[in-house]
Amino acid sequence: MYALTPTSPLADNETVITSFVAHRGTYYRNGAWLAAGAMALGMAILWFMGNPHVWTGAVGGLLAVAVRVFYVASDELAVRWDLTNQRLLGPGNRITALSDIQDIKSLGSAVQVVTATGDKHLIKYQLDTDATKRQIKAAQAGDRI
User: Fold this and answer.
1) How many CB atoms lie within 10 A of CB 126?
2) Residues 65-80: pLDDT tens digits?
3) CB of 123 closer than 8 Å to CB of 109
4) Alpha-carbon distance 79 to 121, whole Å?
5) What residues does 92 pair with on adjacent strands?
6) In sequence order, which residues have a C-beta less than 8 Å from that of residue 62 and are 6 or more positions away?
7) What is the dihedral of CA 6, 122, 127, 76, to 10 degrees?
8) Is pTM beyond 0.85 here?
9) Nearest CA to 96 among 109, 77, 110, 82?
10) How far apart, in whole angstroms, are the C-alpha atoms of residue 30 and residue 28?
11) Which helix (H) or strand (E) holds 30?
């Protein structure tokens, strides 16, 4: 079974500084934007095909995305990342030493953490991506958050 929270034990002298969890409102807002895009795309495809019932593309796009958003919500909203004074601990066994983090980027409502070896991790559905990035950078610098 896939763990939605960090499962690795803390090392000696390691403490959790903060945790990052998905923001419910951000998750549903992203779903609404995805549904709007799917509705427009569905209608455009039917219009280009010459279908006289273009409106069905909107219904299909909305239903497809809505089912996915509500079906996956319990898992996506339960994911937690822990930032410690030594590492960034993700769901399951995702572990990144703070010294191995090479870049931190914002991708919409997600924060992408890129390691020196090229591994990429997404901390998704953050209400304030800039604050998340600042906290990780502060931990890397050894500052108190």
Assistant:
1) 22
2) 999 999 999 999 999 9
3) no
4) 13
5) 6
6) 35, 38, 39
7) -60
8) yes
9) 82
10) 5
11) helix 24-48
